[in-house]
Design goal:
The structure holds 2 protein chains of 2 kinds.
Chain A lengths: L1 E10 L2 E11 L4 E6 L5 H9 L6 E6 L2 E2 L5 H7 L1 E4 L11 H8 L8 H11 L1 H5 L10 H13 L5 E5 L7 H16 L3 E6 L2 H7 L2 E6 L2 E7 H6 L1 H7 L4 H6 L1
Parallel strand pairs in A: 3-8, 3-9, 6-7, 7-8
Antiparallel strand pairs in A: 1-2, 1-4, 4-5, 9-10
Helix pairs in contact in A: 3-6
Chain B lengths: L1 H36 L6 H18 L4 H26 L5 H23 L15 E3 L2 E3 L1 H23 L1 H11 L1 H6 L4 H27 L5 H16 L4 H21 L5 H15 L14
Antiparallel strand pairs in B: 1-2
Helix pairs in contact in B: 1-5, 1-6, 1-8, 1-9, 1-10, 2-3, 2-4, 2-8, 2-9, 3-8, 5-6, 5-8, 6-8, 9-10, 9-11, 10-11
The chains are: A alpha/beta, B mainly alpha.
């Protein structure tokens, strides 16, 4: 479904991504772990067409999409739930959803909208409220729902758990699993390794712009380096064991 | 003396509302561009001039029927708006707002120069719609043209309101104003909508020009003052607020006309700017200053 081959990216002269290679197969749930500044968000900007990579190839369903406009990429079926949600705070919840369906036009709108309200019943109750007045968890749900309104084949999420209460995070992860069962492929980018590895089949670990580890969720969860860096176990724990 | 002025009050109000309608349209043009791009388009006043003068040429030289001439003038100016956005603004290397605003100032001066070359320094006028015989309402003499001005601008305002609230494209324009990054991520082409905003600003400006030319006439440089008045109206209402632009435009027209009537018509133009200064001192956000909802 998605294949990144030797992607490098720079901000000016500063290298941010160094020859990143990864893939996501159809029907998978894959996570990309990394601390602040590892280059995760830049990688996502490359995927959404917001940042042009300086080298390498992004293949989405067989065609190269690097350097394509965000609009074209969304139309191909790759949608993103961005960092900080990026909602339209002064528009109502309903309008936010409608605009998610912008590329499909008015006709298909109602049906998809009903599905979303089914998936996130809170949104039905808040339809006429401005998006900016929602709570953090509700905003996150709206952001996911808005991305789903584009009817994506692959849904990419940038730290959907950030700043949310553990119960809400669980709810959101459960929704992702459900969506995946219904056929949406998922790439989850997270700092919250524990949660992400729990819902995903496979994962990659990124550090300073490189992929340093990859494997099944279980392999990664048991890997010393992951335990130390993301699960809060010190080297000392390891030595003493 | 006093009673005579009071008798003229309805007349002042009528002329205030008429000018106010035109200011409201111009203010709306500022608002359209502001909301889509965050820049102040100082060429807005010259769109007004272009609309008026192109209509003059189409009507008098080419002999087109009046409605066709007016619509063509609006379409032409809309194209000029698109060209301004697609050319100098989009190709500017430096994307800073201040630089882009300076480019619109340059465009304004160029348009004025081009206007002088094309139409000369003379004042031009258009025949009034519905004839020149006024009728009397509450001791005010009202020209049919006045009713046209008020009627057409009100319908445009209603149309724009419906467009923003009830069409997907209108909502997308508000979304681009609210969060361009988020808009791009759901596949809204920000570029196309910005071009559309400039086209609409051009058309609305040209309409203002077409409507006011029969009343006050038009020359290559009239757009400057009209543009500044519209700008003042937009700020009075709260810059960027659509409703504010409309109310600000009407209010400015009224205050200006009453000020000219009751104080001195020599200061007619000064009132607009006194009001502008006043509002900037007292309430910089304007009457309908947008309290934007934002939560982190």
């Amino acid at each position: 479904m998605l294949k990144l081959v030797n992607i490098s990216a720079h901000y000016g002269a500063v290298p941010v991504l160094r020859r990143v290679t990864l893939h996501v197969d159809e029907g998978e749930r894959v996570c990309l772990l990394g601390a602040n500044g590892a280059g995760k968000s830049t990688l996502l900007k490359v995927l959404s067409g917001m940042h042009r990579p300086s080298a390498g190839e992004v293949l989405f369903r067989g065609t190269a999409i690097q350097g394509k406009s965000p609009e074209e990429i969304v139309r191909k079926g790759l949608a993103q739930v961005p960092e900080a949600r990026q909602l339209f705070p002064n528009l109502t919840v309903r309008e936010n959803l409608e605009l998610g369906g912008y590329i499909h036009g008015r006709r298909k709108l109602r049906e998809t909208m009903d599905e979303m309200m089914e998936l996130f019943p809170v949104l039905r109750d808040r339809q006429t409220q401005k998006a900016g007045t929602l709570s953090g968890g509700e905003q996150q749900m709206l952001s996911i729902a808005r991305a789903l309104m584009t009817r994506p084949k692959l849904l990419v999420l940038d730290e959907p758990s950030l700043g949310l209460a553990p119960l809400i995070v669980e709810e959101i992860y459960a929704t992702l699993e459900e969506l995946n069962r219904q056929g949406t492929t998922i790439l989850l980018v997270e700092q919250n390794a524990l949660g992400a590895l729990d819902v995903c089949h496979r994962g990659y670990v990124m550090e300073t712009g490189r992929i340093v580890l990859s494997g099944t969720a279980r392999e990664l969860a048991e890997h010393d380096e992951v335990q130390r860096a993301y699960l809060g176990r010190d080297y000392r724990h390891k030595w003493e064991r | 003396m006093d009673s005579m002025l009071l008798q003229q009050l309805p007349q002042f109000v009528v002329s205030g509302i008429t000018n106010g309608s035109v200011y409201a349209l111009i203010a709306l043009g500022f608002c359209l561009v502001q909301n889509a791009t965050g820049i102040v388009n100082f060429a807005q006043g010259d769109f007004v001039m272009l609309g008026g003068l192109v209509a003059v040429t189409l009507l008098k030289t080419w002999g087109l029927p009046m409605p066709l001439a007016f619509v063509s003038a609006m379409a032409f100016t809309a194209l000029v708006g698109v060209a301004l956005e697609g050319g100098p603004l989009r190709r500017a290397r430096n994307r800073e707002v201040l630089v882009l605003v300076m480019i619109t100032v340059g465009a304004s001066i160029s348009l004025r120069g081009a206007g002088m070359l094309a139409w000369g320094k003379n004042v031009h006028t258009l025949p009034a719609m519905g004839g020149d015989t006024p009728f009397i309402v509450l001791s005010a003499a009202v020209l049919p043209q006045t009713l046209w001005v008020i009627g057409i601008s009100l319908s445009v305002l209603v149309f724009l309101f419906l467009f923003y609230r009830h069409t997907l494209v209108g909502k997308a324009m508000r979304a681009v104003a609210d969060n361009p990054y988020g808009a791009a991520l759901v596949g809204i082409s920000v570029r196309k909508l910005v071009a559309l905003a400039f086209a609409m600003a051009g058309a609305v400006g040209a309409l203002a020009g077409v409507l006011i030319t029969p009343l006050t006439s038009m020359s290559y440089s009239t757009g400057l003052m009209l543009g500044l008045k519209g700008f003042a109206g937009a700020i009075l209402g709260g810059y960027g607020s659509t409703l504010g632009a409309v109310v600000g435009g009407y209010l400015l027209g009224l205050l200006e006309s009453l000020g000219a009537g009751f104080v001195s018509s020599a200061y007619k133009d000064a009132f607009a700017f006194l009001i502008l200064l006043g509002i900037l001192f007292v309430r910089p956000a304007g009457l309908f200053g947008s309290k934007r909802v934002r939560r982190l």
